[in-house]
Amino acid sequence: MKSQTTSNEVITIKPFNLKNVFYDKDGYVLENKGDIGEHIICVRPTSKKLLPTITSKILNNKKIIINNYGHSGIGYCISFGSINRSISIFKNLIKEKNIKLDDEITIIGLGVIGLTTAITLTYLGFRKIVVIGEKTENICSIQSGALAELTLTFDNNKDKQIMLDMFEETFLTYRKIYNDKAHYLNKHIKEVDFYKDIVSDPGLNNLSKKGIIPPLKKVTLKISGNDNFSIEVFKLKSYLIDTENYMKDLTKRCLELNIKLVKKKIFDFNEINSNIIFNCAGFGGFILNNDTENADPVCGHGVYLTSPDTDDGNVCVVLRSIPGLENTEYNGLFYLMPRTRRLIGGSSIKNDKGDNDKLNKEHITKVVKRALYILNGIKPKF
User: Fold this and answer.
1) What is the model's pLDDT at position 121?
2) Is 349 exposed, middle or buried (CB count within 10 Å of its CB: 0-12, 13-18, 19+)?
3) Gyration radius (Cα) of the chain, Å
4) What element of type H or E holds 382?
5) Contact of 82 with 166, CB cutoff 8 Å
6) pLDDT of residue 100
7) Cα–Cα distances in Å, from 372 out to 16, 202, 315?
8) What is the number of alpha carbons within 13 Å of residue 155 lying toward its C-beta?
9) How confident is the prediction for the chain on average, in pLDDT?
10) Cα separation, 127 vs 259, whole angstroms
11) Residues with Cβ < 8 Å from 190, sequence gap 6 or more?
12) β-pairing verdict for 189-196 and 4-13
């Protein structure tokens, strides 16, 4: 199966309107004013091993701990694949540990991994499930870009294949949801044309080679309203998750299935009465397992836009370098995501806990100025 083609095709898009941007006295972009809505500061743990930790252990000869954490900022991209692996580990313990369907199971983590795990266990027949998490607002499962792509690279072929398998399994599940063939989720997923300047995506490349998505096509991308912007990119097909509504639907489905949701921060597995625990707590998962030396914080920055989509509401763009901004402080990662609340973003800062207000404002201002340059041709002052 041919995985890449080259064409003379020129594609012109206008994904967002972005005209009214206001700045404070220090030159930073103002939040919730003009076309700029809420600022996003999303800190997620990246595993130094890259692969998530999907393991089991017995604590104090009593508690069964199933770990599924450390998704390195790509939880949506491998969610179903990693969850199915964690549940497969659990299934292997059912007979050995004499686990019954009415045994209580506690899941730590109110994000996409935790809620989806709870629903999956319910459909396996387990009737007493509790999900505990510190918060449900402003979490990575809502703030994530959530485009089905796989950008991590591996030196270890075995680890790479595990990640490719989890990505493919998750991608095909999103396809089922999109086609209304998943039994417990509504859509909140778009099939999108995805344009990116660097083909560093082993996941989508692999799907293209298998014929699951069309071959990658090299095209020229232009922006309506900015005649000076043009870039060679690769065109792919993928899925974009509308994270806010997707998480609302997962929460609603949990409540319909009588899954108990509890807001509480857990510091130790022994705080939990259940003898079966799924650890899906993100950075908290590392802490609970005394595994923080394997976690690095990575901070992403972006903004929601208040202006509506234009006609190209099913187009995603991810650029690693911006033509015309090379060798300037404004060059760097940039993406456009046409969700219910339109999202622009563009940073991935390692070892940044997102707690420096000035630095956050600087990154967000750079993101917006990249957008103004790409969409409207307004070049930032250097």
Assistant:
1) 97
2) middle
3) 21
4) none
5) yes
6) 95
7) 11, 31, 18
8) 2
9) 88
10) 8
11) 178, 239, 240, 242, 314, 338
12) unpaired
3-state secondary structure of 34: coil
- Please state, in angstroms and as integers, the Cα–Cα distance from residue 251 to each residue in 6, 197, 293, following that order: 44, 36, 32
Q: How many CB atoms lie within 10 A of CB 224?
A: 14
What are the φ and ψ backbone dihedral angles of 12, each rounded to 5 degrees? -110, 125
Please spell the DSSP secondary structure of 69-100, one letter per residue.
E--TT-HHHHHHHHHHHHHHHHHHHHTTTT--
Looking at residue 1, what is its pLDDT? Answer: 45
Q: Which pLDDT value is given to residue 6?
A: 57
How is residue 128 written in tokens? Answer: 């007493």
Token pair belonging to 206: 């692999």
Query: Which amino acid, residue 85?
Result: R
pLDDT number for residue 311: 52
Model confidence pLDDT, tens digit, residues 124-146 = 999 999 999 998 887 888 888 88
User: Biggest alpha carbon distance in the chain?
Assistant: 68
Give the angle 138-77-7 at the CA atoms, nearest 5°.
120
**What angle (nearest 5°) sits at the alpha carbon of residue 359, between those of residues 358 and 363?**
120
Q: How many Cβ atoms are within 10 Å of 285's Cβ, its own excluded?
A: 24
Residue 277 pairs in a beta bridge with 65, 106
Alpha carbons 245 and 229: distance in angstroms, whole number? 33
Token pair 């103004």 is found at: 372
pTM: 0.91
Burial of 55: CB neighbours in 10 Å, binned 0-12, 13-18, 19+: middle
Ranges in the chain, pLDDT < 50:
1
